[in-house]
Amino acid sequence: MIYSNLAIRNVVSTLTGKQRAFFEAYITDPSRNATHAAQVAGYANPDKAGPRAARSTKILAAIEEVLHQQTMSRNEVLARLSSQAAAEYAPFIADDGTIDLLGLRQAGKMHLIKGIRRVDGEAEVTFTDSQTALIWMGKHYATFTDRHEEHNPAHDEIARALAEISAAYPIDL
After folding, report:
1. What would the DSSP string read from start to end of the chain?
2. How confident is the model at residue 72, as a pLDDT?
3. What is the model's pTM?
4. What is the CA radius of gyration of the chain?
5. How many CA atoms lie within 13 A of 156 on its CB side?
6. Which residues contact 127 (CB under 8 A, 6 or more apart)?
7. N or C: which end of the chain has fewer CB within 10 A?
8. d(Cα 129, Cα 171) in Å, to the nearest integer?
9. What angle do CA 87, 93, 96 make, to 5 degrees?
């Protein structure tokens, strides 16, 4: 595997050949199964070697670096939500209803696609929901409040009594 990220390349370069094989098998396995990664890497006893390798300081550092590079920052999350909330799809939809995927790709808007599936030989594209993105942005910026005031008749009685007392005993300041 070739690593374009310098931080990942540096940490992976400290691994032995077998450790690197384990690391690569581990990070490419969606289940992150250490025993399977040890088996792929050629360890003699994968049941014991896998969990041991997964606890290795050097391998853990490499795994942490990859996960760090794959994780979005708060600002990236907000930028993506903003892009989804303000998305304009019309320029990419033809009169016959087909979607210009090449145009989306060239415009750097492929992240606006939620899914693509085949229906009767045609591609059916589902876009991200801008309304949902707006709601998440609104929640982040505390735009919405969920305050509900209930009317309590007892409060009216107290207010009237206080008004009568204030009228009966005025205070000169």
Report:
1. ----SHHHHHHHTTS-HHHHHHHHHHHH-TT--HHHHHHHHT-SSHHHHHHHHHT-HHHHHHHHHHHHHHSPPHHHHHHHHHHHHT---GGGB-TTS-B-HHHHHHTT-GGGEEEEEEETTEEEEEE--HHHHHHHHHHHTT------PPP-HHHHHHHHHHHHHHHHS----
2. 81
3. 0.49
4. 30
5. 4
6. 87, 89, 112, 113, 114
7. C
8. 61
9. 160
Q: What is d(CA 122, CA 65) in angstroms, rounded to the nearest whole number?
A: 40
Structure tokens at 106: 């060239």
Which domains occur in the chain, in start order?
6-70 (1.10.10)
> Do the beta carbons of residue 79 and residue 140 sit within 8 Å?
no
Distance CA 48, CA 33 (A): 12
Length of the chain: 173
pLDDT of residue 43: 95
Residues facing 122 on adjacent strands: 119
